[in-house]
Amino acid sequence: MGMSGDAGGRGVARYVDAGARATVARAAWRAEMRKCRFDTIAVHGIYSSQEALDFNQGSIVEPIVMSTSQGYRDTDELEAALSYRIPTWCYSRIANPSMYYLEGTLAMLEAYGFDGDASCTVTSSGMAAAMLATEALLCQDPKNPHGRINFVSSCRVYGGTFQLFNVRWPERGVECRWVADPTNLDEWASKIDDQTRFVYGEFPSNPGQSCFDIEKVAEIAHARGVPLVVDATVATPALLRPLRHGADIVIQSVTKSLAASGFVIAGAVIARHGMTCKCATSEMCADFATWLKLWPQRDMGPSLSPMNCILALNDVRTVRTRMDKVSRTTMDVARFLEKHPRIEQVDYLGLESHPLHALAAKYLWLADAEHDDLYKKPVNRFGHLMSFRLKDGPAAARTTLDAFQRVWRATDLGRIKSVATIPAISTHHQQGEEARKMADVPANLIRLCVGGEHPDDVIRDLDQALAAIGSRPVQVPAIEYSAGGASSPIVAKR
Question: Is the dihedral of CA 347, 206, 167, 216 positive or negative?
């Protein structure tokens, strides 16, 4: 691109030089922050006091920049910005200062303890993140243009992911190859061929608490030149950082455990620099998350609002302490349920009785527990998602769910408040009975995400709800709904 401006030094080059200096300064600050402990990174992220003084009137909290776009000094700066040659946020569908602070923090948290580096792009939801990342990988291989493109995934995934993989991508002619047993390494290997574009798994899975050996599956995928994508939403980087174990891309539904307050719908794609991907361009492989932001996300538009960025960032600051607390509470709840006469099975990886406990314990560690005065040694933590199955069948599951008094009935997880649902009639309903059977999501299973309440109170609510089985029917108050149109809110009266 030619340079414009006069001989006095004005021109695109002037702005490119200034942008380069700013990039170096921010990189130096980021390098210093990467030397800090996990909690310090979560609290401060990439927002420095110098940046606050230079750009935000000294505000110690990252700003919510609600403007849709950025103004420029002249046409030279505009040209440099829109050709991506200087740091810019130009238009909030592509980038925004508030978005930048969240992305930088999440990238550093996922790369904590990782020898390499990573970048992040945030999206409007967790499903937007899964869609954006996997769609970009479903490209034709110029060296092998013949044959049907496919990808390999564990069948133990969230219901929305199952629909994306089982319905949406096949609608475009892409084959999904399901791995029925994610612990079977031979099954993973047997599904991959020359037209495979990526391998995908959840750790732990929602709702069944399945997991897989990330390091070994990454080795299998990389031997065939394809990336491993891991959805680590349930664990968060406070308990699991898949990049350290060979994964190339991490998917986070930030909505869930990272943003526990329940105010935010958000997602994130975090990718290692220099990932394995045989059919991608060198630019994609070098920095996949940034490439997603500058090109596919720009064109498709699943961006995150500035308000949601800062709300999420505020919750992220305490994620390690929070995940420690809710993990310990969930363990108490799981032990109670394991001994309850009405319970057929408890699915929680923290229980030593769980068949995958040892595998989960290989990967799920509380960040920096060995540097914490409370523990002073490495400590396993298994998160706050669990499920349990009722001996008396689906009807008993519904009776129990209806009898909860403090546990919320909702299709949500990761909240600071305890929430439960029956996946077979909610989050995994659209999969159909056959697919639910393959994924081991029976109708008598209740998914419980334990919040920040005291464990005694959660257990007390579970106990009284389970007592409702076989006793008098649960009395559900009659509700009258207002006669509003389709666009009107429904007002309930008890």
Answer: negative
